Amino acid sequence: MKVVGIVGSVRKDSLNKALANFVAKQFEHKFEMEVLTLENIPLYNQDIENDAPQEVKSFKEKVAAADAVIWFTPEYNGTMPGVLVNAIDWLSRVNRVMVGKPSLVMGASMGALGTVKAQAHLHDVLRSPGIDSPFLAGANQVVVGAAHTKFDEQGNLTDDNTVNFLDMVTTNFVEFVEKNN
Fold first, then answer.
1. Mind listing the pLDDT tens digit for each residue in 6-61?
2. Is 19 within 8 Å of 57 (Cβ atoms)?
């Protein structure tokens, strides 16, 4: 199974990028995941959507070729960061590569529940007509609180409870994708 992980942070030492890289490495026996970052995606502009810049075309092609998407979102001001919204704007227009593509949402934060609101908003967006992505939710919501204390210097997630929970959620996600594709 081929998955893309979309990181909603452009910070060099992003906790969400660390989480995405950990998931890609730790669960490579379950799925192949390419981690996509958004720092080179220009602002969405309807004037150029039919002849988008190469960075956007490549991004959309990778998402289209994947069986599923895992979103890694921080929370800024009680919602998703602008770079993630911008990426979704590109994905939801013209050929709408997300329609019907299964999604899973995760988030890492220094706070205890720092990405809960962002994830709720992202779930709302995933239901919108231009995206219309079935997603794994409920008890499978992944919120890694106090994340700055749970990664070692090599980027390994060291909290056994979190790793075990991720193992369960990724297993559920693989089953969900297989049932929905």
1. 999 999 999 999 999 999 999 999 999 999 999 999 999 999 999 999 999 999 99
2. no
* Among candidate residues 77, 75, 78, 64, the one with its CA nearest the CA of residue 36: 64
Burial class (CB in 10 A: 0-12, 13-18, 19+), 80: buried
Sign of CA dihedral 83, 154, 32, 172: negative
- Asked if 159 and 167 touch (Cβ cutoff 8 Å), the reply is no
134, 103 Cβ separation under 8 angstroms: yes
CB 24 within 8 A of CB 33: yes
pTM: 0.96
Q: Which residue has the tokens 């990778």?
A: 62
Q: What is the pLDDT of residues 65-98, one digit of tens each?
A: 999 999 999 999 999 999 999 999 999 999 999 9
- For residues 142 and 119, give the distance between their C-alpha atoms in angstroms, rounded to a whole number: 9
The 10 Å Cβ neighbour count of residue 5 is: 24
- Residue 14 CA to residue 21 CA, distance in Å, equals 11
Q: Which of 65, 82, 75 is nearest to 4 (CA)?
A: 65
